[in-house]
Amino acid sequence: MKLKKKILSLLLSCTFALTTVPSVGFAADKAESSSIYDTTISAESKEAESSSQFNVFDIYDAHQDYLAEHPEYTAPSVYRDCLGIDVSQWNGDIDWAAVKASGIDYVIIRAGYGKYAFQVDKKFYENIRGAQAVGLDCGVYWYSYALTVEDARREAEVCCEIINGYDYTFPVYFDIEEKSQQALSTAQASAIIETFCSTIADNGYHPGLYSYASFLNTQVYNEVLEKYDVWVAHFNVAAPSYSNPYGMWQYSSTGKVPGIKGDVDLDHCYKNYPYIISPESYTGPGGSDTTTSTTTTTVTIDKGIAQGIDVSFWQNEIDWDRVAADGIDYAIIRAGYGRYASQFDLRFEENAERAHNAGIDIGIYWYSYADSPEAAVQEAEACYEVIKDYKYEYPVYFDIEDPSISNKSAEELTAITDAFCSTLQDKGYYVGITSYSNFLAYKLLPEIYDKYDVWVAHYGVKKPSFSSDYGMWQYSSDSTVDGISTRVDMDYCYIAYPEIMKAHDLNGFGVTPSGETQETVESSEDNTAEE
Question: What is the per-residue pLDDT for 492?
Fold first, then answer.
């Protein structure tokens, strides 16, 4: 519930977190070598275009139209239509000055492959120094052979060891395409990708995922694709046959670029990664200068006004006194899921009571499976039955992200979201929406954010890729907190929610133990006194 949020925030001296970076969920990876791509991706070029493919050209063009109509919009654009290449040792010696002069804007460089440090690409250090020396924006990719999550974690650790010491204005991509990996189940492939990318993020880099279109469409869970930037490979087509958002498209493996002998992979990029990855140090369209950097730039992250966590049954029993002593200000607790009150989180009441007793403010979230507005209303009513006996200093969030609804249109998903949120808003709750940044940007219509607050999830970045206001940012899913035995999600908050709830009698603060509103009780007392 917005409750004229912008006015309230001024009155209560609350600062909104503003970002001009929408979540596009794009990314791209690069090539191993021409011979390797002949055996792993060449078949992709014969693949027919999908009727449900995502055409990022439309997104870019629409954004340019918006900017033309709004000259007052002066922040750097989050979209950047630019041309790049990806290279490895197989491209030989490269004249980087000639590459830059030819109009290439960025390069994705292979850092290595496998799980051992000696598998560094033999040209990596030469290529990264040469490309950065002429002012090209740079990212890297790691070619994977991982068949287990243990292998993926080791590959990520070795990758971080090798790429340390340089600034990267494009993501660090996980290249999963080996024939042996094609035999993995969707669950196995997704777990491997999640392990590599989350390890990269934990080491301070912006992770991305690269593969060919059919692999991404069939062997990776949507929730993984929505968490990380995607770089899709598909040759000889008007647009990739890939139905989800992407930030880069590898459209050719037979390109010709001055300064490089033989064929080279060509890529289109549509996201302004230099701005997204390091907004505070961004200097222009590309964001690079013409000097070689050997140290990592320190970028200040806006940590808001409160540090929080979000928990559920899966965190097991929590020692909330130790959590409070570890500096946690608030917790967003799962109340339940689905459309029946019997689907309450088995630790909800325990977590709510013990967190409050430890002096920690709380909010809640309800995990949704609703496939229609009617089902969403049922979920809201079930949620109300579970949460109605408690007070909440933070919003009640509608968690919409389940893969079962990913095929629905933005109009349908927006109607579902509004049905849940408005039902609880009418019951006196301050309601918000939570999901991954990609889902929020592309699966819901933007006008919904004029009505409800947002809690955005985006990991491994300096700032979430989301263009509207957001009140909370879930910045990690793999942190540790004293008093919790498992990994836990971490959040920053930018709005003084407790003051809003108490000042406006929301989220149970205006209700007496008997269920009457405080205003009704006071009115009754006044009438009795007059009699």
Answer: 97
Please say whether the beta carbons of 442 and 410 come within 8 A.
yes
**What HEC string does 11-33 produce?**
HCCCCCECCCCCCCCCECCCCCC
Query: pLDDT at position 82, please?
Result: 86
The pLDDT assigned to 69 comes to 63
Sign of CA dihedral 31, 34, 36, 39: positive
What is the number of other CB atoms lying within 10 angstroms of the CB of residue 222?
20
Q: Which residue positions in the chain have pLDDT lower than 50?
A: 1-53, 286-299, 512-531
Angle at 71 between CA 66 and CA 75, to 5 degrees: 85
Quote the CA–CA distance of 62 and 508 in Å, as a whole number.
42
Give all domains of the chain, ordered by start, each with its CATH number. 5-17+301-519 (3.20.20.80), 34-278 (3.20.20.80)
- Amino acid identity at 273: Y
Q: What angle (nearest 5°) sits at the alpha carbon of residue 109, between those of residues 105 and 111?
A: 160
At residue 52, the pLDDT reads: 42
- Which letter does DSSP use for residue 148 in this model? S
* Tally of CB atoms within 10 A around 20: 19
pLDDT at 443: 85
Nearest to 102 by CA among 66, 63, 136, 68: 136
Q: What pLDDT does 56 receive?
A: 54
- DSSP-derived 3-state class of residue 151: helix
Determine the residue type at 204.
G
Contact 244, 263 (CB under 8 A): no
Determine contact, residues 425/1, Cβ cutoff 8 Å: yes
| Predicted local confidence at residue 403, as pLDDT | 74
Q: What per-residue confidence (pLDDT) applies to 40?
A: 30
